[in-house]
Amino acid sequence: MSRSIWRHGLGALAASGVLLGSAACSGGSGGDSDPDATAGACEPAKDGEKVTLTFTSWVPGMQETVDLWNSQNPDIQVDYKEVVGGNDGTYQSYSNQIKAGKTPDIGMVEFDNLPTFRLQDGLANVGSCEPVVEAKDEYVDWAISQTSFGEQDAVYGIPMDIGPMALYYRKDLFDKAGIPVPATWDEYYEAAKKIKAEGARIGDFPTDQPAWFTAMAWQNGASWFSNDGDTWQVSLTDDKTQQVADYWQKLIDEDLVNTTPGLSDVQWQALNTGEEWSIIGAAWTTKLLESSAPDTAGKWAVAPMPQWEAGGNAAGNWGGSTAVVFKDSEHPYEAAQFATWAFGDMEALTLNNKNGGQYPATVEGQESLPALTEGLPFYGDQEVWGVFAEASAGVDPSFQWGPTMTQTYSDLADGIGRAVNGDGTLSDALQTAQEKTVESMKAQSLTVAE
Amino acid sequence: MSTAIEAAVETTPRPPGGGRARRPVRRQSLLEVLLPTGFMVLAALYFLLPLWWLVVASSRERTGSSGTGLWFDGPFRLFRNISDVLAHNDGIFVRWLANSFAYATFGALVGTLFASMAGYALAKYVFPGREAVFNIILAGVLVPATALALPLFLLASLVDATDSMWAVLLPSTVSPFGVYLCRIYAAAAVPDELLEAARLDGASEFRAFFTVSIRLMAPALVTVFLFQFVVVWNNFLLPLVMLQDNRLYPVTLGLATWNSQVTRVADIQLYVIVGALLSILPLVIAFLALQRFWRTGLSEGAVK
């Protein structure tokens, strides 16, 4: 849990990037300060100095939040740019910009990709910045703790939003068929059998969403990555994950769930026509379901995720992102000030929720955001947000991401895609992803325990 | 079939200026007609089907919920959807289309000029290292654009040109394939005697090129222009790497930003589909209008 592991990784990256060295050095925009200064001091700009920050993200409607800030803070203006999704290309751009020293001040990085950028030494530690010190306690603890990498008082990203999960189900159909809402995974299996007998399916096992499967394992207390300071442990095939894989394999083999791409036209259509009776989704799925299955308005309800142990309250987390301050930013203080406002202030959170469907990462936001305290007609006037607030409290804070998640996800998705077509099993998919991950971490000169 | 191929070879068009040989009249059996025709029809269907789906999907009220079939169901909303897309985000889509047009037109025009000059010089002037230069340019055809994106970005950031139109425009003017095609074509289509005559009449090398040679090379130039236009229009990686300001985005990158928002705002999925349809229209028009030149140009280069 020390910093050495990151230094080690950095050296490896620097070695592999020799060709780019000269450009990276001359392109630096650090200005007058020495490289280590950003790690310690986080000072505001001098009085009267006007600061302009650049901020990129792919949250729909974020411009409106930025406009509100700009109108209230004439001395700290934010220049916002909307970019493509991280895995669609922006992460690659960030990596290039880090090499060239041309990053924006603030960027958007999903939780699972934070370690990648930490390893590239691209992120500023804003843990000592006054605005962060003040706001730190307001965030859900497992969300803020994911941004520290175990370093004392470190914060490498301000949580923007999170995706605690729950079970969305067709209340009318469950009631009519006399099937109780499953509280455990055993009950989910039983319900799935009954629903199949009715000629429908309980839901979908998304074939193209490795992050969804990860969230399933996370709920069961899986621990995929850990490090003890020098050495990484990779265990995608631990008992907890294995249990989850075997469970879904059983449902797939018995044809109790559909196996179509998640959040796709096919799935929405199945949900809209009553062909599927439920979906295990995140908080941000609420609005998506509402607009994608309009013919079923008023017939839905939300319940906590089924549990592995009866009476538990464990939940998975699917998605969620952070606002990072890049290391080359000349104004980490103001950047942190903006980020803690944009993802902590009630007015800003309201806009983010309205335009971008973001579910806040602050406790206050979850509990008292006006939009999150009312009943939703689509869900039979149920106050669904309370379910997600509870789910958020049940997310295992010890789960850690690996430093090569893009690769891990891609290998996992490949394996899952094969498994649902009868070529191998989910268990095989995990085994392959495990091997490929270890391989790719070693290729980055990281020490990995066998 | 073998006689048919021989007949085709016999009728291969001669270099510009020469007349076309008349196709020998020959009776073909029914099977000989049906088989290739049937195959071409199937191939055409295969390639047109996604396009047709795009038109149908763009006419729906919403994606997903109203079916994914290949025929119109529900109200026909294509034009309503188009106007929605054009109006979304203060009409940013129109701007993306204009940007794409600017990038592709500039890249194709300047790229064609450069390629024709380079190809002509390599074909018509003898100088030491000529083949070496040509081979190096030819090797450029083999280097994937992906591999060049990062070095180009680092170069652009050295001169502070990232996040500007120039960062996309300048690399778009380079076409190694165009140089190759122009050289092959110029070697065959521009007779040395004609250049001699031009020189004897006192024309400078530049004048000889711009008034005589470039006209003879016209079919190749159209080919290079179209080819480069399509390449720049469809380019995604270079603008992705270079640009952050979405007012500078070409339509490919713009659609990708919308597509990354579909998991948060479901309506955008329809906009992406309608936008994709709109974004291919200029290419379809360009092809239909310039098809004739495109075909001749390609085959001329291929045969020589």
Automatic annotation (TrEMBL), chain A:
Positions of region (Disordered): 25-45
KW Signal (keyword) present: yes
Residues annotated as signal peptide: 1-23
Keyword terms, alphabetized: Cell membrane, Lipoprotein, Membrane, Palmitate, Signal
SUPFAM superfamilies: Periplasmic binding protein-like II
InterPro entries named among the record's database cross-references: Bact_solute-bd_prot1, SBP
Superkingdom assignment: Bacteria
PROSITE patterns: PROKAR_LIPOPROTEIN
Keyword Signal: yes
Pfam families xrefs: SBP_bac_1
The name this protein goes by in its record: ABC transporter, substrate-binding protein (Cluster 1, maltose/g3p/polyamine/iron)
Organism encoding this protein: uncultured Nocardioides sp
